[in-house]
Amino acid sequence: xxILSKRQVKELVLYSPQHIxxxxxAGQFPKRVQLGPSRVGWVEDEALxxxxxxxxxxxxxxxxx
Length: 65
Hints:
With 65 residues, the protein is of the alpha+beta class. It has 3 helices and 3 strands, in the order βααββα. It comes from Pontixanthobacter luteolus.
């Protein structure tokens, strides 16, 4: 298992740390892991799964409510 830093997650998903935090709070992004008093990380497999779902969704037809 590999843990990604905030910088690595930002580079992977191309979102700002603030936007990642908003998505996390809304339950739309994998939750961070508290590694120490001032250090957090994300499980790489969870971040990659999240990204894969976005890639798969791009081929689905857009549904309007």
